[in-house]
Design a protein that fits this description.
Largest sheet of chain B: 7 strands, mixed
Shape of chain B: flat
CATH topology of the largest domain in chain B: D-Maltodextrin-Binding Protein, domain 2
Number of domains of chain A: 3
Radius of gyration of chain A: 27 Å
CATH superfamily of the largest domain in chain B: Periplasmic binding protein-like II
Distance between the termini of chain B: 72 Å
Structural class of chain A: alpha/beta
CATH architecture of the largest domain in chain A: 3-Layer(aba) Sandwich
CATH class of the largest domain in chain A: Alpha Beta
Strand content of chain A: 5-15%
Shape of chain A: globular
CATH topology of the largest domain in chain A: D-Maltodextrin-Binding Protein, domain 2
Largest sheet of chain A: 6 strands, mixed
CATH architecture of the largest domain in chain B: 3-Layer(aba) Sandwich
Strand content of chain B: 5-15%
CATH superfamily of the largest domain in chain A: Periplasmic binding protein-like II
Helix content of chain B: 40-55%
Strand order of the largest sheet of chain A: 2-1-3-10-4-13
Radius of gyration of chain B: 25 Å
Number of strands of chain A: 13
CATH class of the largest domain in chain B: Alpha Beta
Number of strands of chain B: 13
Helix content of chain A: 40-55%
Oligomer: heterodimer
Chain lengths: 518, 400
Amino acid sequence: MVRKHRILILTLLGILLSTTGFGIHYLIESDQDAKKTTVTIAVMVNDGVRDFNTNYYTHWLEEQTGYDITFEYIPKGYETEYIQTMLSFDESAIDAVFLSGKEKILEDDAFNSFCDKGMIYDLSAFITKDSNFSQVMKEYSEYELYDQIKRGDAVYYIPQMDTARKQHNLQVLWINIDWLKTLKLQIPKTTKELATILQAFKEKDPNRNGIQDELPLISCEASYSMQSYNYLLNAFIYNDPLHARLYFKDGKIELAQVQDTFLQGLNFCRDLYENGLISDIGFSYSQKQIMELVNDPEDLVGAFTSKSISDVIYPNCSDILAKFIQVAPLAGPDGEKNAVWVNLEPKIGGYIPANSRHPEEAYKIMDTMLSKEASLIAAFGEEGKDWKYSDSGELSTYGSLAKITTINYLSDSLQNKNFAGTGPLMLDDMYANSVTWNGDCSLVEYIDARAIRTYETYYGKSEAYLGLFPDNAALYETINKTTDDWILRFITGESNSRDKDTWQQYKSTIEKLWESFD
Amino acid sequence: MNRYRIQCYILLALLVTFLSTLLVGCEKTVARTEQYRDMEQWLEKADLTDHLSKEELYQAALLEDTLVIYSVSSRIFDVKTTFEQEYPGLTVDVRDIRSYDIVNKIKNEYENEEYKCDLVVCSDCDGSLYKELLEPGIVYSYVPWDIDFRLKDDNIEQGLEFLGEAIMLVYNNEVFDAQPINNLWELTEDTYKGKIIMANPLSSFSTNGFCAALFAQSPAMEKAYEDYYGTKLIIPDGKCAGEIFWEMAAPNIIFTNSSDEVLESVGNNGANDVWIGIMISSKMRYEELGYHVALIYNLEPFAAVYTPNSITLAGRAANVNSAKLFIRYLLGEADGTGEGLQPYTTTGTWSVRQDAPDGNPVPLSDMDIVRLDKEFIYSNRESMTAFWKRLLVENIEIRK
């Protein structure tokens, strides 16, 4: 009887102790929670992310930093106003702004102006030698990353940079393979063959709807990579709009846009435009409108250029993706073939308003996002569930030995594992370029990798020039602005490139600009 | 007394563990039994030996949802387009997936009882489709009653084979007027360093079939070696001629992900300086787009491995009538003239029907071709995977 009582007492005591323990633990936790700083981050709605607040990556960052993170969505359509208003407060409820690499709210000039006015926090005081930021700057010193980021002695943002191999290629020409098959045509190898194909696209109803509604080749002004005429000019002379179209010849820097071969290319583009083979519709379209056009089930577009196929075709439209195939760099009349090599450039991943209440905490979160572990989550999701380190023998999309095996591709779906490209991110290129393929022929990463491999062969020439061009952004901007304007006028017929005087006028304008910088 | 009590406690603990394991086991067994029962009920309702006309199937299919197909063949997209035109009101969702992944995906979905797929289009180059899906009753064959007797022999033994294709050697016919090699062992020569391309056998089912065939055909490989070099091949203990061949050839080979890439590399005007590829023959349909490739039909000891594509109905498929209708359509309907067959009548394909012509100008009977020894491949999967892992790491690293 006594023993039974003793057992009962012991059991009750045990329950009491464990309950008390739990209670104490709960109190400690609650106390800790009460002391936790909440960092509020403004983001734009991202179509690839279900909810930033419940996101796996958010929880991971909270665990790593010890802060609570809350996201506030920037109202669509009022992004600029939102940022301007937020920056103008004495004290802001927003501690940081995260941006997606694909869209920016403020133009560079506007952002720099806010920096200069002291409305964006200078992060340099937080940056220590052992911070992730410093490590990343060291790793990417070959791209002069720090020089690209700093403004004077200040650092106003934490970068985001896509280090994938495909980012080095300016543009790929994609052609409608179904139309080629329907008309029994072959993938073009020269500009002459392309012109013949585009003519057939225009006249022979390749979409078989009985209406002449085909747009043989479209061009869009949203970016250099989507300007198909810039692609075509590369079949005549090395045409690098990112470096003011400078090229190196016999030890001297020359301007491509004043050469006779460039004129030849312009005339070729003009003829295509005049004959309706480069469609004029895209010239006034935004990228979004171009996407709608190419993804139209009516099958209206024959060819386009872009950096990645996903810049124009939605990654989840496998049937549309299957319609297009890359065309290797075309050869011009003299056999010239070029692909433009692009230096990796950082974009703004995140910044802190000067009126933030928790700048140091916000910096800590952003710096954590530059760590290897964070970058892998940001790029591939949760380890073990969405990706794993590769077994030996697996190949990457680029044909090298893979380092990352993807279990679930997050890039073409709505997910809640990472921020789908929003916020600071610097994934080591060793991982970015060593991802396995899942066998899906319409997977964007696979399509892009296949395309880029046919272009890389033609980079060599441009790579040699790197570092030889003047480091002068203002020069590039001024010359580009003038050249771009003239190119459009020549192609659309507003100015006549075949008229000697007009050409001479254009040439001397550009040459004078160049000389003024000399 | 104390010792007795301790023993009692241990026994009690063991008993509790045993009972809980038993309970979990019972739960699983009960769940599995229920799954079998559900599958049997589905099978009965699906009636895979029906004699329904296509009109009857169409009417029944109109009451169903979107047909979901897991496919290794991208041409199913073309079939989807014309099928949806032929049968208004029906929609098809095609998921382009590799054979390796299809088998695993269907198995996982079966185990989790998430039946998302209706039709599986897949080749069975390592026997896993048969061993892991067909034999255990996870997928099923459906042969339309009025097409059955029109099929060539051997096409319905292990799932319904609807497309005859082969994994073969191709060469750039702009660089070479005629096939550059007559014996497989020539590929081990230094002349071919960096001139051969093939998909990674660990991720390409059909390439794996070709690689394994060389192991399975080791006596023929030995003879071919002797024919080429004039001396007998010395085979160390524990090795075979096929293994030696791949060890010698691998340093010459560029490994890639898919037959599409093989075609692009070999056929692209020789620009990539790759002369020979090992790829699935049906990719020859892209020859019309200007790729300069030609198939090698005759070679010592063989030039090709027959790797047909099968179509099977996924167990517990939700859209059975749509699936049956799609299979009929894919086979060209009862008389073999239907539009669904058209995408599969190109160069590099052979008809499975007696009443429809081959797409390829050279018949299988005129080729040095072997059939897959699925039993051999399936039972040697692990050792071959280990072999290729080693070979790939060694050779890709070397090129880096």
